[in-house]
């Protein structure tokens, strides 16, 4: 079958694949790029199902890719949204300690923020209530540079820029096996295949599979962690002005159930973190035998469950009990009325887990022969997307130019 030709093929039309394609076309004049996206629209998975927060960068290990790319990426994201008329702001957020044993953890978070050069203000309950009058806490951090952005609109603008610069975004096209050719790769698509000199994988929940389809043997597997949300409606919604976060459990990469008022003014509580029964398992009834087998037979899964059975069990109970979920949100704002909190659409995080059962903390890339796969890109990767795209594009440029 005749093939489409490009210099670079990018698998995945989420914010990271599109940011990479855009960065390639901006850096390398005349380069041809094709993005393959299996859904009919870009941004259908993680990019379109998240908290919409531009993270300031306070949580991440100093010197890590997450720390560097979140801080720089947040600035770039604000600039990009401004240039393209995309809804965004720097509304700031509060991180609140509600128990005495969280106070040292909050102090440690303040230290980390300083190490990452993220400006913060430490404060007591009264000052915290000048930002969020209904919050309950013993101590708090205010992070002024946290913001919000419409990440779906960002992805859509990036897709438009790719096409305007002469590239292609082929929605409804699933990338299958990638076979090496003398000049690069031939990627099966079920219709016209694509031949390209370089292959980039930005496939989110399928990142490890797309890497394996080109012959890589990633040392980690993607496990899907669903993040469920509740809509906060009625008088309870008026109790939250902006973003209110708990002190995160330092053992996990997840930030804990928080309260967020979005740019559309809707208020959400969430997300929790439960192992989903399918990679795109947005509810308990979404079950995939293939995905479940992949999770069950990965050696890291049993080790992960053995290590984290207690918090994992608590998360499961919170997922199954509306009362428990509401209790988590009411730790932050006790006046929330349970009747005002209703199930909302969920997202699923693509989290790489290694054979020892460790959750990969930092962003992780696999460098192949004329290929590069983004294996681990959880939060704050939407915030950092323009920087991650630039980093990948720079590496690709070294090979193809
Ligand atoms: C609940 C939740 C809350 C979050 N909150 C935040 C937040 O507030 N701030 C923040 O910065 N980050 C947040 N994140 C993280 C952020 O959403 C992700 O890191 C980011 O969207 C990842 O982008 P991506 O392009 O890698 O993945 P995705 O958006 O999932 O895109 C991957 C794409 O690849 C496509 N694909 C997969 N396999 C194939 C194939 N074989 N062929 C063709 N296409 C394929 C998929 O259809 C998908 O569209 C959150 C994530 C979740 C789930």
Describe, in plain words, how this protein is organized in 3D.
Helix 1 (15-27) runs parallel beside helix 5 (151-164), helix 1 packs across helix 12 (385-400) and helix 10 crosses helix 11 (322-332). This protein has three domains: 4-47 and 152-219 and 361-400, FAD/NAD(P)-binding domain; 93-144, no CATH class; 222-242 and 249-354, D-Amino Acid Oxidase, Chain A, domain 2, CATH 3.30.9. The model has no long low-confidence stretch (mean pLDDT 96). The chain starts with a strand and ends with a helix. By secondary structure, the chain is an alpha+beta fold. The strands form three sheets. Strands 5, 6, 7, 13, 14, 15, 16, 17 and 18 form a nine-stranded mixed beta sheet that branches. It has helices at 15-27, 65-84, 103-115, 125-131, 151-164, 207-212, 234-237, 289-296, 299-307, 309-320, 322-332, 385-400; strands spanning 4-11, 33-36, 53-54, 88-89, 93-97, 121-123, 139-143, 147-149, 168-170, 178-181, 184-187, 194-201, 220-232, 243-246, 258-261, 267-270, 274-275, 341-354, 364-368, 371-376.
